[in-house]
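Subject: complex prediction, re-run

Hi both,

The earlier run crashed halfway through, so I resubmitted it with identical inputs.
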Amino acid sequence: MHEFSLCEGIIDTITAQTHQQGFSRVQRVWLEIGALANVELEALRFAFALVRQDTVAAAAELDIITLPGRAWCLDCAQAIEINQFFDPCPRCGGHQWRLTGGNELRIKEMEVE
Amino acid sequence: MCVTCGCGESEAAIQSHGHAHDHAHAHDHADDHLHGALPHSHPHDEKRRVSLEQDILAKNAALAASNRHLFLELGVFVLNLVSSPGSGKTSLLSRTVQVLRDEFPVAVISGDQQTANDAERIMAAGAPALQINTGKGCHLDAHGIGQALERLPLPKGGVLFIENVGNLVCPADFDLGEAAKVVILSVTEGEDKPLKYPNMFAASQLMLLNKTDLLPHLDFDLAQCLDNARRVNHEVDILQLSARTGEGLEAWLNWVRRGRHAALAAQISQLETELAAARAHLIHGGGTIRRSII
Ligand SMILES: Nc1nc2c(ncn2[C@@H]2O[C@H](COP(=O)(O)OP(=O)(O)OP(=O)(O)O)[C@@H](O)[C@H]2O)c(=O)[nH]1
Ligand SMILES: [Mg+2]
Ligand SMILES: [Zn+2]
Ligand SMILES: [Zn+2]
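This time it finished cleanly. Structure:
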């Protein structure tokens, strides 16, 4: 359950930014999470609901934007889309690809007041 | 819709991440937008979108980078050993340090939720060791390693092994500043583990298949296991060994020795760069000592 650690990181960042920019409350947070990221979205939501308590984000909604898994197939020399680490290249069926996107864990933006 | 005043964009645009609307700036809705006949008061003018674009793990990444820099400066090859509980990390490390401590400095940091058993086993094997108890924490992080390094002297020019908390999920996300993650899988765990925990196998440079002495007693499909590992990570090195009998140990030790060589080479080239920079300073700026007229 490192989702709790991740949520603590989110709260730390948005708390610092909220204070720095002179706001008092966070109403919504947008995350970008890659399709292959090492998180369980339900666990993340659950952890966020607990970790946000007694913070500037106590009432904040969480919006999760899923980013697709992208890779570069070395055999095809082509950009491909994949959904899992064990997916074969959809063009050649091989596994000789390198991930180029899809494991993001990013705080995109927040709505404050 | 645009949350600033509810006048424009749709939620869908936000979901698809396709809008080029920078919410961090204060756009003046009162002037720019047509709102028909609606009386356009702004009762929620204070509401603002703040663009962050920050990695959730940014803090850990920064601390890991400073650990990594320290390892580079001191020429320490650092491995982060990850696995499920009981795969044989401590058994393997005990044997490993017994051999390698005669060749170069070695040290071990052991992470467990509770007990100092593992560090004690390593010390009994003759190497400096430090236990980190994570309590409820399910992984080590770069901050914990940084703190541990205040109490455990780094094995300069040698190898630091970090035994992570037994857990095939969470440690995959937390860079400690290591040169490589080594995932240990024991044959008793089943050949499907690389597929079930792909992030960990994808993040590792080396997979050690341990407890091969038990293979005759199991219906473990070795070929399938290796295939599964290569499906999630076609670049992973794989070595088979038994921490119990010592079979296959030498190939692992050689892998570590090669890594240590690479770490020393990196340290030397770093020092050479610094030396060249210092020389350049001497030649170009302020290096010539001018006689001052008294
Ligand atoms: N048969 C056999 N048993 C092994 C081998 N390596 C370790 N074991 C046994 O597996 C058990 C767990 O070994 P440890 O070295 O404590 O495993 P670990 O990964 O450090 O465990 P945690 O730190 O608790 O996650 C012990 O009973 C070891 O004796 C091996 O190669 N063969
Ligand atoms: Mg152990
Ligand atoms: Zn966890
Ligand atoms: Zn291909």
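The CA atoms of residues 158 and 205 of chain B lie 19 Å apart.

- K.
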